[in-house]
Fold:
Amino acid sequence: MLDMFGTAFENAEHYLSQQPTDTYLRQLLSSETFIAIAALDEENVVGGLAAYVLPKFEQERKEIYIYDLAVLERYRRQGIASGRNQELQRTAIAIGAYVIFVQADYGDDPAVSLYTKLGTREDVMHFDIEPEPTA
Structure:
């Protein structure tokens, strides 16, 4: 799936240059807080979704954050992304999550169009905070 994300997002360096070890991936995939849903053509990954389950503090409930969702270009417009989302919705119901959320970049019109069909749009600001304070 990492190779597919690198190709679909045209960012192979990010997805392939420092791939996790098999041990790390086994731990992640067996975790209750990570969800991966692939779309296959024969044995080839042609689309996929990676999401995180976030247990909430203020109430006993969970929400799901879609971190990556992509489909290889030649497989787009065939319902693969929507199908991954439908599978995630079934998973959300099964684990008792109350919402699924995702963010899209301004200018990424295909993503904005897809997510508009799937849910309610909220315009929010996003901030990246470095773990180490800058001097």
User: Anything to note?
Assistant: The beta strands are 34-41, 44-55, 62-71, 97-102.
